[in-house]
Amino acid sequence: MALIVQKYGGSSVADAESIKRVAKRIVDARRAGHEVVVAVSAMGDTTDELLDLAQQVAPIPAPRELDMLLSSGERISMALLAMAIHSMGFEARSFTGSQAGMITDATHGAARIVDVTPIRLREALDEGAIVIVAGFQGFNRDTRDITTLGRGGSDTTAVALAAALSADVCEIYSDVDGIFTADPRVVPKARKLSRVSSEEMLELAANGAKVLYIRAVEYARRHGVLIHARSTFSSSEGTWVLDRSRHHELVPEGEEMEEPIVAGVATDLSQAKITVIGVPDVPGKAADIFKIVAKSGANVDMIVQNVSAAATSRTDISFTLPKTDATTALKALAAEQSEVGFENLVHDDQIGKLSVVGAGMRTHSGVSATLFEALSLTGVNIEMISTSEIRISVVLRGDDLAEAARVVHTAYGLDGDTDATVHAGTGR
User: Which of 81, 39, 355 is nearest to 201 (CA)?
Assistant: First the structure.
C-alpha cells in the first residue's frame, strides 16, 4: 500500500462530467489498495469569474474579504468531488485548508505555508476514507483568518500535504500528458519528457513553463517530494520530477551518468521591460534604483547595464519584471527621479523571454552558440541576455517569441516525430 497525493486543476474538474471522471480515477487508486489524499482546484474558470465579480462591486477589493470570496471556489469542487466518490460506494471526506491544517502567514492573496498539521486527514485515512482537501487556501493562527496562496496554490497545497504525510508520490494532474520540451501550444513538435530533474524543472517553471508552478517545485525540492506530472484525460505515465540523488530507483541504470544537454525551451510573455535612461555612472546609483523598485513590491528578473558614455558619464539600466508590477514600479521610480538623478524612464510591455534549460550545460560547450545562431538565421534581434549554470535566457520582441521557440527547439534536436496532444487547451 502506498500513500498517494493527487492534485486536480480547474480544467480537470470543469463540470459535472469531469468531476465524475476524476472521482473514478481516485476510486481506482483506492481499489488498488492505496491511501489517497486529493487537493482540488476550483471548477474551470471559477476563480477568475469570482475575481471579476469582486472588481465589479469594488475596484480595489478588501484583501481579507477577497480571500473569503476566492476560497469558496475550492470548497464547491471539494464537496462535489466527495459526493461523486460517495455515489461510487466509497467514503470520502472533504476538508477546507484550515481544517486540513494548512497554516500560513498573514499575507492575503499570496500567503506562504509555514506549517502543516494534517491531524484530521491522518485520522480520516486511518478510518479508511478518501481525503479531499480544498487547494489554494490556508489559515493564519494569529489573525484566525482564511488566506489564499496565490496562483498555483493548489499545486503547492498538494506538495505540502505530500511532505507532511510522507507520501510516496505527489501526482499533479492537468490537461497535458506531462512535462514537454516546450509548451505544445507554442511548439507543436514538443516531446514529452519521461524524467526531469527538480533543478531543471525549477528553471523551467521560473521562466514560463506553466505545467508546474515554481513555488510547488521549490517546496518539493526542499522536502524531497517525488512529483509525477500526468494528464487527467489519459492513463499513460507522465513525467517524473525527481532529485536524482534521492530517487535513483526511477533513473535507468547508466542514465544518471549523462544529464541532458538541453531538457527544454521555456517561453514567457508575461514580462515587461523598464529602462532607466541617463543614470549617473557613480557607485550607489544602481542600488538606489533597485531599492526603490523593491519597496514598490516588484519582483525583478533580468538586469542589463550599458557601458557609460565617455562624454556624459551616464549609463542606461534595463530590467524586466512582471507586467502586473510595472505600473507601481514606474510610479515609484518617477517619484524619486530628482533624488537618483536619472533623465528618463521607458516602459516596454511588448517583450518575450525565451529560455533554454539543461543540466548538461555545465559540461558541454557550444550551447550558447547554437542558440544565437538559430536566432540569427530567423532574423530575431536579442535585447537582453541572462545566464545561470543550467540556463540561458534572452529577451526579444513578443511577436517573435513563438517562431523563435520553434526554431531553437529544432536547433537543439528536441523535435518529436508527431505533434503533441493537448486535451483541454489551458495547460492547467
Answer: 355
Alpha-carbon distance 423 to 428, whole Å?
11
For residue range 230-243, list pLDDT tens digits in order. 998 888 899 999 88
* CB contact set of 102 (below 8 Å; sequence gap of 6+): 113, 116, 133, 137, 138, 139, 157, 160
Q: 253 CB contacts (<8 Å, ≥6 apart)?
A: none
Which three cell numbers, joined as nine digits, stand for 410?
529544432
Reported as a single tens digit per residue, the pLDDT across 349-406 is 999 999 999 988 888 889 999 999 999 998 999 999 999 999 999 999 999 999 999 9
Cα 350 from Cα 336, distance rounded (Å): 25
CATH architecture of 3-253: 3-Layer(aba) Sandwich (3.40)
Secondary-structure breakdown of the chain: helix, strand, coil percentages, each rounded to the nearest 5: 35, 25, 40
Which residues touch 161 (CB under 8 Å, ≥6 apart)?
Answer: 5, 37, 39, 100, 116, 118, 121, 133, 167, 170
Exposure string of 163-200, with b = 16+ CB inside 10 Å and e = fewer, is: bbbebebbbbbbbbbbbbbbbbbbbbbbbbbebbbbbb
Give Cβ neighbours of residue 198 (< 8 Å, ≥ 6 apart).
Answer: 217, 220, 221, 227, 241, 242, 243
Taking the C-alpha atoms of residue 219 and residue 225, their distance in angstroms, rounded to an integer, is 8
